[in-house]
Design a protein that fits this description.
By secondary structure, this protein is of the alpha/beta class. It contains 7 helices and 7 strands, in the order E-E-E-H-E-H-H-E-H-H-E-E-H-H. Helices cover about 35% and strands about 25% of the residues. Belongs to the UPF0215 family.
Length: about 200
């Protein structure tokens, strides 16, 4: 992959003591205190040679259903047609605000990779525990429509990826190209740091 190839990494930060599953273990998921209702999303444009080439921010509702639209809005706000891939940290940010990566790939005309870092038995039991009625049905529909999750070895570490808009072989090439060291793709790593810094700056 050429060194100038760009990917947009998406990661979030929100306050509170809830343990939010992004596609990983789901024990002890709860909120305490007066947590604000929004999570900060950061989008970091990073080249394959690790050069950071742009940042943008958006918010989505903690426990809501607007994460997919928020990511689409964030991408559009950048105005970056040179971004070739989206790498999203997990599939259920902001306390089960599920990301429809298939819809994102179709709407943005870009491959979208949902990347997570822990083994998981799946989110359906946790969704059924915390939601009911239409709220549960919507989340289950999005989750069940998501592409299958595959393990990928990168730099001796195991990542898990769901890929929409490209095949599994291309997804593996993308992850390895954008993970020069360690086991966390650089666009996601930068986006996570920036989201946390933004959260600290606004004082929430």
């Amino acid at each position: 992959m050429k060194s100038g190839t760009r990917a947009l990494g998406i990661a979030e930060s929100y306050p509170g003591t809830a343990r939010v599953p992004t596609d990983g273990p789901t024990d002890s998921t709860h909120f305490s205190g007066d947590s604000p209702p929004e999570s900060i999303l950061c989008g970091a444009v990073v080249r394959a040679d690790r050069v950071v080439d742009g940042l943008a921010f958006e918010t989505c509702t903690v426990g809501g259903v607007d994460a997919t639209d928020a990511i689409a809005s964030l991408y559009t706000s950048l105005g970056r047609e040179d971004v070739r891939y989206l790498l999203v940290s997990g599939i259920a940010p902001a306390w089960f605000n599920l990301v429809d990566i298939g819809r994102l790939a179709d709407e943005l005309d870009r491959p979208v990779l949902s990347v997570s870092f822990e083994a998981s038995e799946g989110l359906e039991p946790a969704l059924s525990e915390h939601f009911s009625g239409d709220a549960l049905t919507h989340r289950l529909d999005v989750y069940r429509d998501a592409p299958p999750r595959h393990a990928v070895e990168v730099n001796g570490e195991r990542l898990f990826v769901r890929a929409a808009g490209c095949d599994d072989d291309e997804a593996v090439r993308v992850l390895r190209a954008f993970t020069p060291t360690g086991g966390r793709p650089e666009p996601i790593r930068v986006a996570r740091m920036a989201a946390r810094a933004a959260r600290q700056f606004v004082g929430n």
